[in-house]
Amino acid sequence: MEVDVNQPIVVLDTPGSGFKEEVASQVGTLDLSHCFQCGVCSGSCPTMSHMEYGPRRILHMVNLGMADTVLPSHDIWMCVSCYSCSARCPQGIQITDIMATLRNMAVARGLARDKEATFSRVFVDVLARYGRLCEWQVLLRYYAAEAGLSSVTSLMKQAGLGLTMFRKGKLKIRPDHVEDVQKLREFMTRIGRGEAS
Ligand code: SF4
Ligand code: SF4
Fold this sequence. Notes:
By secondary structure, the chain is an all-alpha fold. Helices cover about 55% and strands about 0% of the residues.
């Protein structure tokens, strides 16, 4: 590959945007520049093979202020919050919390377009509605939100399994819910407005 010496190796998407500081402030008292790029986090990550960059490079890009690359990244939705990276980081950087913060920021800025993001949103919507998980509602809402031909095919494939689970009493048509569902919904609305912690 020919290298153009007049071009920078790393292009900062939004230099000076305050992205790094914003991430740090949302995660807490954390100096992200303490990361010395040892790679222990990426080496510990069970979903690394499904990521494009991995936690080490994500953190490096956060430090470089590359919001435009990090926030639309598929990688932040591949994190399963296992805390392996946070537990092993020699610098005590809470990468799991950073990943969660990046997902929140991606949603807030309308950059969460992955199907994993859709699933997370639907999952939380159903929990916020009942306080309990209702599997068939999650699946239906998810496939409706994805609304593609492959989604319809996937849903059809799952129909047989759903029917078997229903026959065996493992799938309830009427969703379970917490005792005071109204209170839960009011609480979730307040969280949505940023009024509850
Ligand atoms: S383990 Fe910690 S110090 Fe090492 S690359 Fe990951 S975040 Fe940086
Ligand atoms: S918390 Fe996320 S980024 Fe860290 S090791 Fe687990 S899956 Fe990977």
